[in-house]
Amino acid sequence: MKLLTLGLTNFRNHKKFSAELAEKTIVVGQNGVGKSNLLEAIYLAATAKSFRASSDHEMIRYGEKVGRVKLTMVRSGEKIDLEIVIHDGTLEGIKKKFFVNGVAKRSTDFGGNLKAVMFSPVDMELLSGSPSGRRKYLDLIISQSDREYRRSLISYEKGLRQRNRLLEQIREGEAERSQLFFWDRLLIKNGNYLTDKRAELLNFFSGQGTEGEMIFKCGYDRSEISEARLKQYETEEVMAATTLVGPHRDDFVVEMQDADQENNFVNVAKFGSRGEQRMAVLWLKGGEFNYLNQADDCPVLLLDDIFSELDHKHREVIETLADAVINKGGQVIMTTADEHVVPKQEWKIINL
Predict the structure, then answer these.
(1) Stretch among 31-40, 230-239, 305-314 having the lowest mean pLDDT
(2) CB 242 within 8 A of CB 220
(3) Domains of the chain: which residue ranges?
(4) Burial environment of residue 230 by CB neighbours within 10 A (0 to 12, 13 to 18, 19 or more)
(5) Whether 300 contacts 2, CB under 8 Å
(6) Among the four residues 63, 120, 153, 241, which has the most C-beta atoms within 10 Å?
(7) How far is CA 69 from CA 6, 17, 18, 84, in A?
(8) pLDDT digits (tens, 9 = 90+) for 239-273
(9) According to the CATH classification, is domain 1-115+295-352 in 3.40.50.150?
């Protein structure tokens, strides 16, 4: 799996951009010129969602109504054209349209055509950040390899909004509790699929073992959703007008121990040093790559100015991962403000 070309129109700060991509491509430019936006566009093509934007219209160039991302990739010897058209919402409320080889697709059918592992400085705050950020991290990974997960996630999120709206109406005396029955069934069915797949991914991570001198594993704080648990919190849910159980309240932790110790795991976010937290994130990223690489096609590795955030020891871990991607016939695309980070003769350089 390799990207051949990338084209942007009114995407973020890029009015018009196009480039051919190589097996090893480095985008060089000063901060603020839009290097990260190129990687965001590629990751959008992989997941159908932005890892940065809180709403779709943020990806459209200021003052414009429509943005566009176009990529050409090759997979198993076949060329595939991917396109995302982003509207500001004024066109019949449509915000994103997806096309594969010119044919319109639903987001559930579009995501996963391209697989990518994204590593940016923001990821360094993954363990110490919010649970919602960690849930989104899991969702973006699994959605690339499991169409049913993408469908279940969309259905669950829509159902959750409807159920919370109904809880508010019940609190205000405008609806009956019996009206929750349909939404309860929908959330239980889709929610259990989401949590089962998240558990599989986290168990896969834990099976990856060591990173350097440390042993890491993941702990899943799973918020079960069932008839019994919804019944348990029915009074509190009406009072809060919020669904209090389910995968929208999941979280996970990464635990570590020294390789020469036994059964003495501690929470990295709480007790790990800054260096140990970074090593744990690198361990997660390695696991993410291995998870997506279980199929025949090697995912594209996207490195967003990450070397500026790491010391020599941690850079070596990333370089080892990048070498592994190339050795498996994959592709690495990275950004940097310093073109001397890598030898020119080994990389195609795109200057912004």
Answers:
(1) 305-314
(2) no
(3) 1-115+295-352, 129-294
(4) buried
(5) yes
(6) 153
(7) 8, 10, 10, 5
(8) 999 999 999 999 999 999 876 666 688 999 999 88
(9) no
Q: Are 36 and 11 in contact (CB under 8 A)?
A: no
Q: Which two tokens stand for residue 321?
A: 């991962």
What are the structure tokens assigned to 99, written together?
A: 């096309």
| pLDDT tens digits, one per residue of 179-206 | 999 999 999 999 999 999 999 999 999 9
The predicted-structure confidence for 73-124, as pLDDT tens digits, reads as follows: 998 889 999 999 999 876 666 689 999 999 999 988 898 899 999 988 888 8
Q: Residues 27, 332: contact at Cβ < 8 Å?
A: no
Count of residues for the chain? 352
pLDDT above 70 for 210? no
For the whole model, what pTM was predicted? Answer: 0.89
**CA dist list (Å): 325 to 213, 216, 329:** 23, 22, 7
Q: Which residue has the tokens 């699994």?
A: 142
SS3 annotation, the chain? CEEEEEEEEEECCEEEEEEECCCEEEEECCCCCCHHHHHHHHHHHHHCCCCCCCCHHHHECCCCCEEEEEEEEEECCEEEEEEEEEECCCCCCCCEEEEECCEEECHHHHCCCCCEEEECHHHHHCCCCCHHHHHHHHHHHHHCCCHHHHHHHHHHHHHHHHHHHHHHHHHCCCCCHHHHHHHHHHHHHHHHHHHHHHHHHHHHHHCCCEECCEEEEEEEECCCCCHHHHHHCHHHHHHHCCCCCCHHHCEEEEEEEECCCCCCCEEHHHHCCHHHHHHHHHHHHHHHHHHHCCCCCCCEEEEECHHHHCCHHHHHHHHHHHHHHHHCCCCEEEEECCHHHCCHHHCEEEEC
On the CB side of 215, CA atoms within 13 Å amount to: 11
Q: Which CATH superfamily is domain 129-294 in?
A: RecF/RecN/SMC, N-terminal domain (1.20.1050.90)
